[in-house]
Amino acid sequence: MSAEAARIAQTDREMQETAPLPPPGRDPDLRLLEAMLFAAGEPLDESIIAARLPEGADVRALLTALSADYADRGFNLVRAAGKWMLRTAPDLGFLLARDKPEPRRLSRAALETLAIIAYHQPVTRAEIEEIRGVSTNKGTLDVLLAAGWVRLRGRRRSPGRPVTYGTTETFLVHYGLDAIQDLPGLDELRGTGLIDSRVTAGLTIPLPSDDPGLKDDEDPLEPEFELSFAPEPDGDEDQDG
């Protein structure tokens, strides 16, 4: 061994001897999981977590234990869009929001359009207009596309081959949903007052699905269309927005 290699080896031994010991009783796998979630810039799915943990680690048990451990802390371990992330406790969010720039608020037209896409996807612009009962300005859809909450899915196999829209993983993460099926149903909407409890008994809300696979009546987007698309700024709102 050369003198330089011996010096490096000696330095490594000294660093290991002086390094702080892990807290007694804390599962090393649990500590590693905490470190991964803390350092992650985006939600992590269980396959990524498992690949980074020691072989044989029980990922689901570790996540369950950590979630329970953080339940009453200032931040929680939550599952969104099928992935795991650390997020500020809901009851403290308003305190931290005061230090953030005021986010751009969606217009009523944009919120209605987003809700229709979430529940009825895949859906075309014409179908959105039919449900809303008013024309939908292109700028409204551009805002949702630019926010990353809505995506272009494909083209409907109908005259004109209109583009179909669906929601994204970013939409689920933003609204704290593990899956699109976690959107509130009719009874829940009635309970929150968002729907009048006296509405007709025939009113139904479809079971939402964001399956990425194209439906039987959809064709894939043309590559050149998908690559060249970019939302254009449009300050106009819908007639009722």
Write structural notes for this entry.
This protein is α+β, with helices and mostly antiparallel strands. The chain has 2 domains: 26-96, Winged helix-like DNA-binding domain superfamily/Winged helix DNA-binding domain (Arc Repressor Mutant, subunit A, Orthogonal Bundle), CATH 1.10.10.10; 108-228, Winged helix-like DNA-binding domain superfamily/Winged helix DNA-binding domain (Arc Repressor Mutant, subunit A, Orthogonal Bundle), CATH 1.10.10. It is built from 11 helices and 6 strands. It has helices at 3-18, 28-39, 46-52, 59-69, 93-97, 108-120, 125-132, 138-147, 169-174, 186-192, 223-228, and strands at 75-80, 83-88, 123-124, 150-156, 163-167, 218-219. It has a 4-stranded antiparallel beta sheet. The chain has a two-stranded antiparallel ribbon with strand order 1-2. A hairpin with a 2-residue loop joins strand 1 (75-80) and strand 2 (83-88). It starts with a helix and ends in a 13-residue tail after the last helix. 17% of the residues are buried.
What is the topological layout?
Blueprint: H1 3-18, H2 28-39, H3 46-52, H4 59-69, E1 75-80, E2 83-88, H5 93-97, H6 108-120, E3 123-124, H7 125-132, H8 138-147, E4 150-156, E5 163-167, H9 169-174, H10 186-192, E6 218-219, H11 223-228
Antiparallel strand pairs: 1-2, 3-5, 4-5, 4-6
Helix pairs in contact: 2-4, 6-8
Keywords: Cell cycle, Cell division, Chromosome partition, Cytoplasm
Region (Disordered): 1-26, 205-241
Protein name: Condensin subunit ScpB
Tag the structure with descriptive keywords:
241 residues; alpha+beta; Arc Repressor Mutant, subunit A; 2 domains; two-stranded antiparallel ribbon; elongated; WH-like_DNA-bd_sf; cell cycle; Condensin subunit ScpB
